[in-house]
Design goal:
Layout lengths: L2 H6 L2 H8 L3 H5 L3 H33 L2 H4 L4 H46 L27 H19 L2
Amino acid sequence: MNQGLLNSLTEAERLLVAETERDALKGLDEDELLDLHQRIRRARTKYVKNYRRAASAAVADVGGRGMSYPRNQRDRDKAELFESVLAKVSREVAVVANRASMQLRSERLEAARAAKAAAPAMRATDGSTSEVVSRPRTVKKTTGGLKKDASTRAMGARRQAKRDSR
């Protein structure tokens, strides 16, 4: 990183960039990394917005986009710095999230294996076959109650009647 650019950062921005060092990132969990990611994204968006606004305002004063380009170098450099720092944190978030998903997957598989080994299968009661009998469905097609279902049907009927009367 450019030392002049680092010197132009505010104290809060310097601390934010320092939080993205390799050693500092290794000690963070997924939620802390996502929080850091959001704070860096806000800083990057701030400088991108400042750069674009200043550049568009300078076009009319200077007489063209090419002439206004060098006038806003500091905001452009800060936006680029925060973009590279954001990419670094994004990669670390991806690594930690992948690790967490693999761990969760292995825990779920382990729990499923343990449940399968512990629960005996339901057998037919006549004893003639050894096939597994499935349980009857207990879920009904309702949305939470007879009154609510009737209300929904009536609303649909009113809507259709309104269309038909046109």
